[in-house]
Specification:
about 400 residues, alpha/beta, Rossmann fold, Elongation Factor Tu (Ef-tu), domain 3, 3 domains, 5-stranded parallel β-sheet, globular
Length: about 400
């Protein structure tokens, strides 16, 4: 009987995943990962880890499967949280959930599972895996979950073929409503539990307070940029340039300075903000709500614009540096000067967008059919062929 270890979080998804595997005849064991202890900046009640452990224990007992906890908090801090602090300090916006899957759930957790004699690990992600043979080699495909509202393939966009070879996603074919129904039918302790929010294993946080563990407060200016700023018209002449220059111009973030607008307020640190952010600015007296257009951590300036349709929030393209590109399907990697029609998304739950991927010596450019709102450096752009996620990269 094949031994499988499930990452049992105390949530309904991993609970039902464990149940389905047991029903399929596997030797199922459960591990609860303890990855974070500090509560500074965590909003009260958003991640009650003690309750989660208890719920996971109750679920394991109900299903009749062995249960244990493993503490990976030191590695989680080093590989995920410290990286997160470092990125914010540089004025970039990281995605800790993507890092958590690559560095913890499908790395140190996977290693621990193998050490304990497991052949595979399973999680409660809403995605699917399919294995095919190509040129005599076994290839693992990462597919979107069948529930379009819950598809979590984006969070796994940095997984390798080796990691996928050991992974199972038992609920990928199900709708969330069906998962709840199964848990309720079984009387599982997690059946009514709300979905977790915020940072993976940390919970919902007050970001400035959380980041102040490592990043210092420093007063700077908030500058309002008008929607007719000349920088937004730079792409009008891009067709007069050669193709490489067109790609660079379309993907280049807008550049701002103090003279481009007017000072309308103060902030406590540019590194506490991210492009597209609305809350936490403390700016009143405007006709429309303000949104962050850009940040300059060196000069400690936050640039904002009025309204969610401000042109500074939209860009047609993005760039992925050569050393920041990851192919889930290495056999589909593009050669230099080649292009590929793809679907892409730059955040979880974003509808897949029509785009073209262009490969150059410097890296890859993704040009969208429609301008995208809130393209943010440090985030991951994932690209798909139909419903298969084939690769991703960190936005420059």
């Amino acid at each position: 009987m094949k031994k499988i270890i499930v990452g049992l979080s105390g949530g309904v998804d991993s609970s039902v995943a464990a149940y389905l595997l047991k029903e399929q005849g596997y030797d199922v064991h459960a591990i609860y990962m303890i990855n974070w202890h500090d509560t500074q900046g965590v909003i009260e009640g958003s991640c009650p880890s003690d309750d989660d452990v208890l719920v996971a224990q109750l679920v394991a007992r109900k299903l009749g499967i062995p249960f244990q906890t493993v503490d990976f908090s030191e590695l989680y801090k080093k590989r995920v949280v410290d990286y997160m602090f470092s990125e914010y300090e540089k004025g970039r916006t990281p995605n800790p959930d993507v890092l958590c899957n690559r560095e913890i759930k499908f790395d140190v957790f996977l290693d621990k599972a193998v050490e304990l004699g497991a052949e595979l690990v399973a999680t409660g992600h809403y995605c699917r895996k399919e294995s095919i043979e190509k040129d005599g080699k076994l290839i693992h495909r990462l597919l979107a979950g069948m529930d379009n509202n819950k598809d979590q393939s984006y969070f796994l966009c940095q997984l390798s073929q080796k990691q996928l070879s050991k992974a199972l996603f038992p609920i990928g074919e199900l709708q969330k409503s069906k998962v709840r129904e199964i848990a309720d039918m079984l009387g599982l302790a997690s059946a009514k539990k709300k979905d977790s929010q915020g940072i993976c294993f940390v919970g919902k946080v007050d970001l400035p307070t959380f980041l102040q563990q490592k990043l210092t407060c420093k007063t700077g200016n908030i500058v309002l940029i008008p929607d007719d700023y000349s920088e937004f018209n730079k792409t009008m002449t891009y067709k007069d340039l050669n193709f490489q220059s067109q790609l660079e111009l379309l993907s280049e973030p807008y550049s701002y300075n103090l003279e481009a607008g007017k000072i309308v307020g103060k902030h406590q640190g540019a590194h506490f903000y991210t492009i597209g952010q609305r809350r936490g600015l403390g700016i009143g007296g405007l006709k429309e709500p303000p949104f962050v257009l850009g940040i300059d951590v060196k000069k400690n300036i936050v640039y904002i614009g009025e309204g969610k349709q401000h042109p500074g929030l939209f860009r047609k393209a993005l760039f992925l540096s050569k050393n920041e590109i990851h192919w889930v399907r290495p056999d589909l990697e593009l050669n230099v000067n080649k292009s590929l029609k793809i679907y892409a998304r730059i955040r979880y739950r974003q509808t897949l967008q029509d785009a073209t991927l262009y490969m150059t010596k410097k890296g890859a450019y993704i040009i969208f059919e429609e301008a995208q709102r809130g393209i943010t450096s440090g985030q991951f752009a994932a690209f798909y062929l139909e419903d298969e996620l084939i690769g991703s990269g960190v936005i420059s």
